[in-house]
Design a protein that fits this description.
- This protein is α+β, with helices and mostly antiparallel strands and 583 residues long.
- The chain has four domains: 9-160 and 201-280, Phenylalanine Hydroxylase, CATH 1.10.800; 161-200, no CATH class; 296-464, Roll (SH3 type barrels), CATH 2.30.30.100; 490-578.
- The protein has 22 helices and 17 strands.
- Helix 4 crosses helix 7 and helix 9 packs antiparallel against helix 10 (184-199).
């Protein structure tokens, strides 16, 4: 097992466990630790003023340290007190899987950490974004329930084939952008490809719409009033650049509503507008309103068409409760209603999320087709017929019968048996020597074996994934590419060593090193590095070494002149060092 389990993680289905990877805490370098410490110190200093009060409280409750990257095992020991757990994954995972983890009260944490060059913002999910952004807010019970419910509803959202293509493109960009030394033209090409896909998505799928809701709340949400909002979205909480930018008048603030589902976002740029919810409870209200528009609650012809477009495993539930899971291939419609559905490939039948005995994917290996609706000229639906009604209409064991449905589907054959649900309703009728036709076209013929006809006058639900998780082999996840771990140069390893020496000195594990010698080497060998001189300045400040402070500040000024982009980062680091001494 690649992770340490606990009672919450034990409940995860097998197909989600395939995404979990070990955190490999020893892989974090002293530079990684310095990046974490800088971002967290800056965040806590600034966010204590502009973040929702749950954030600072949540940092304490979830055991997230300012000085060191959190260890997932330690986090889990504390998270279980609020009914949650955390697991490590490799960057972006498919949206439906991400949301399903949430439904099980599990926080997915990309365990890599951003490069120093991307300290302010990275499109790649990393431990700063997940651990320092998502985890603290779930200590708020109302928000935690919203997150769980969002996962429960979101994992049922139906995707389109184009969604999967966009997911792969975004994952690719996040990987190459965080890989040291990726040529800028390769990054530009990946960004242009995402732009092209976003502009040519066509009608947005349910997953695209609910992903928008997730983005404008969980990732980039503000709370309070439009005039005086506070931050709660993890994307803002973990971005030291955007958390300040979003509070300016340059970012438009809009009252949160279902309109957010139809507002697209660009992951490669700062957001031009943000939505403000009055409180966490209102998030759940909007979510339920949105869920009422989804096929999982509406079913019908549109729901089946969404599943066909997705080209992926999905389920429809009929009015009898019978659930058909497979890849939906075709639907015949009449008067705006589905009258015949057809899957291709392995299909399973279930009732109340439990596979019907004898109706596994092995039995329905080539697909499944069935009429839906009422019989022509008969007011009462088959599912509403009592035993006497069934006998009167010859829907009875051993009877050779011809059933004609509204819309022209004909089923002709000899009834062998029927399967009933817990309420006594017929949900499945099995025929031998059966022919199924529509307007002269053969849909099923006797040579194909026994024919199982689903019973149901309407499709009440349609959603992503199978009814019974055990019906299908879902452990098929293959990453098209994984996070790039490039071989480090001798110079990079040397720099990591100097960061480690300074970290050891600050933590008291080795106080014999000469900070001045380290600084002189950094100054001559690594003249562009600014974060270690900032850490050395903090130590010089603590020891009242005014001459050393001035020497470091002079060097930092020369870095700012040569690289103005890091000027504000250096200034903020100096302010934090000065403030920590005063406090």
């Amino acid at each position: 097992m690649s992770y340490e389990s606990n009672p919450i993680l034990d409940k995860l289905p097998k197909h989600l466990k395939q995404f979990i990877k070990p955190q490999n805490y020893e892989d974090y370098t002293a530079i990684d630790q310095a990046v974490w410490r800088y971002v967290m110190r800056k965040n806590v200093d600034y966010l204590s003023q502009v973040a929702h009060s749950s954030y600072v409280d949540g940092l304490k409750k979830t055991g997230i340290s300012i000085d060191q990257i959190p260890n997932m095992y330690g986090m889990n020991r504390i998270l279980k007190e609020i009914g949650w757990a955390a697991v490590a994954v490799d960057g972006f995972i498919p949206p439906s899987a991400f949301m399903e983890f949430q439904a099980y009260n599990v926080l997915v944490i990309a365990s890599d950490i951003r490069q120093l060059e991307n300290i302010e913002y990275t499109p790649a999910p990393d431990i700063i974004h997940e651990g320092a952004g998502h985890a603290p807010i779930i200590a708020n019970p109302e928000y935690a329930e919203y997150l769980r419910r969002f996962g429960e509803i979101g994992c049922k959202a139906i995707s389109s084939a184009k969604d999967y293509e966009l997911y792969d493109a975004v994952r690719h960009l996040s990987i190459i952008k965080e890989a040291h030394g990726t040529p800028q033209e390769e990054i530009d090409k990946a960004e242009k490809h995402i732009e092209y896909l976003q502009e040519n998505m066509g009608e947005p799928s349910e997953m695209a719409l609910i992903r928008n809701l997730h983005w404008w709340t969980v990732e980039y949400g503000l709370i309070g009033t439009v005039e005086h909002p506070k931050i709660y979205g993890a994307g803002l909480l973990s971005s030291i650049g955007e958390s300040a930018w979003c509070m300016t008048d340059q970012v438009k603030k809009i009252p949160y509503s279902n309109e957010a589902a139809h507002t697209e976002f660009d992951i490669t740029k700062p957001q031009p507008q943000l939505f403000v919810t009055p409180d966490f409870a209102f998030l759940s209200q909007v979510l339920e309103d949105f869920a009422n528009t989804m096929a999982v609650r509406k079913g019908g012809l549109l729901g089946i068409k969404k599943l066909i477009t997705s080209q992926a495993l999905g389920t429809i539930e009929l009015s009898t409760g019978l659930q058909i899971s497979g890849e939906f291939h075709n639907v015949i419609e009449h008067d705006g209603k589905p009258i015949y559905i057809q899957t291709k490939g392995p299909t399973a039948l279930a009732y109340r999320e439990k596979e019907l005995v004898g109706h596994s994917t092995a039995y329905h290996a080539e697909g499944f087709g069935s009429p839906i609706g009422k019989l022509k000229g008969i007011n009462i639906a088959i599912e509403d017929m009592g035993p006497r009604d069934l006998k009167a209409y010859k829907i009875y064991e051993g009877e050779q019968i011809s059933l004609e449905f509204e819309g022209g589907i004909k089923v002709e054959g000899t009834i062998i048996t029927g399967t009933r649900n817990l309420m006594g309703k017929i949900i499945l009728i099995t025929f031998k020597d059966c022919t199924v036709t529509h307007e002269g076209k053969i849909l099923f013929q006797p040579e194909w074996g026994l024919y199982d006809m689903a019973v149901g006058q309407s499709v009440v639900s349609a959603y992503n994934g199978p009814a019974d998780l055990n019906s299908f082999d879902l452990i098929t996840h293959q990453l098209t590419e994984t996070t790039i771990k490039q071989k480090k140069s001798a110079k990079r390893l040397q720099l990591e060593q100097y960061y480690q020496q300074v970290r050891d000195f600050r933590e008291g594990t080795n106080t014999t090193i000469s900070r001045n010698k380290v600084f002189q080497v950094i100054k001559s060998e690594f003249p562009e590095d600014w974060l270690l001189p900032v850490e050395l300045y903090e130590l010089a400040k603590q020891s009242n070494d005014h001459h050393f402070q001035k020497e470091i500040l002079d060097h930092l000024e020369s870095i700012k002149r040569n690289n103005p982009k890091v000027g504000h980062l250096i200034d903020d680091g100096i302010k934090l060092a000065d403030a920590s001494l005063v406090s």
